[in-house]
Write a structure and sequence with these properties.
Elements (H helix, E strand, L loop, with lengths): L16 H17 L26 E6 L5 E3 L2 E3 L4 H17 L8 E6 L5 H14 L4 E3 L9
Parallel strand pairs: 1-4, 4-5
Antiparallel strand pairs: 1-2, 2-3
Helix pairs in contact: 2-3
């Protein structure tokens, strides 16, 4: 029996409001039950000192490399044959620095290389420092000025 004459069948409709309500309840449940891990930090108050810091400058060996691949150790030109000969020159420079100071620490090797210097020249200095037993190596750089 068809009591609705003239009316067609209506398409079933999905009501999204209960679905959204269930999702919101799940979201709230997850937010409430989630534990947020907070890393405990030590509250440390460091002691202060009023004394001036010691102005002790570590001993330095400065190596300069120009764009043509010439080497200078502490402003003295040295001839480069291989890393072993450069290591001997570095050892002599380190011995001359430590001769005046009893119990002096290892000197810092500062590499001043021209920006047009080949990469191999810098690697040769690093290899020579390793052979000479000088572990503290750093590079000098010029700060760029932004004011034009």
């Amino acid at each position: 029996m068809n009591f609705r004459k003239g009316r067609g069948k209506e398409d079933p409709e999905i009501n999204l409001i209960p679905f959204i309500d269930v999702l919101l309840v799940i979201l709230i449940f997850l937010m409430v039950t989630t534990t947020y891990s907070r890393f405990t930090e030590l509250q440390i108050t460091l002691p202060t000192a009023d004394a001036e810091k010691a102005q002790e400058k570590p001993s330095q060996i400065e190596i300069g490399i120009d764009a043509q691949g010439r080497y200078k150790i502490n402003s003295e030109a040295v001839s480069f044959l291989d890393a072993a000969t450069l290591a001997n020159d570095l050892k002599k420079a380190a011995e001359s620095l430590s001769a005046g100071k009893a119990g002096a620490a290892d000197p810092v090797v500062i590499i001043n290389a021209d920006r047009a210097t080949s990469h191999q020249s810098v690697i040769d200095v690093l290899e020579a420092a390793r052979i000479a037993g000088l572990a503290k190596v750093t590079f000098a750089a010029q700060a760029t000025s932004n004011a034009k």
